[in-house]
Design brief:
four-stranded antiparallel beta sheet, 45% helix, alpha+beta
């Protein structure tokens, strides 16, 4: 039984999870495992936001938007709910002259719809619970 590969994988998994909990305090380790990705830069927030919209994870996408961006977020959610075949095919993020402001070109389409390029001006700022999209306007 000691040479069984499943047993070996189980022991290694328990060991590595134990190291994580030992290295960090348990509260930090469990929240890091549960939350998954933490955002170090604004571009990662923007990419993850559009990925969540594309996968129809609207509650998770809404958690990344706050302030004035919530109105645009609800419009985008409605657009994705109305057309179940619609998907985000490309996200291109460009820096602008303003700090934490990005010009984002989204290519959407489906097998039955034409490709459409949408352009948004997105501002990302640090909030109490991490980086959030605070303003999103359609260009």
């Amino acid at each position: 039984m000691l040479l069984n590969r499943h047993f070996f994988i189980l022991v290694c998994s328990i060991f590595f999870i134990g190291v994580i909990v030992w290295w960090q305090n348990p509260n930090t380790a469990v929240s890091a495992i549960a939350n998954g990705q933490s955002y170090a830069n604004p571009k990662a927030v923007i990419e993850d936001y559009w990925e969540k919209l594309d996968y129809r994870q609207f509650d998770l996408a809404s958690a990344l938007a706050s302030g004035q961006a919530e109105a645009t977020n609800s419009i985008l959610q409605q657009m994705f709910q109305d057309n179940p075949f619609l998907s985000v095919q490309n996200v291109e993020i460009q820096n602008t002259s303003a700090q934490n402001s990005y010009l984002v070109e989204i290519t959407t389409g489906s097998s039955i719809d034409q490709r459409k390029v949408l352009t948004y001006q997105i501002i990302v700022e640090q909030q109490d619970d991490g980086l959030k999209i605070v303003e999103m306007s359609h260009e």
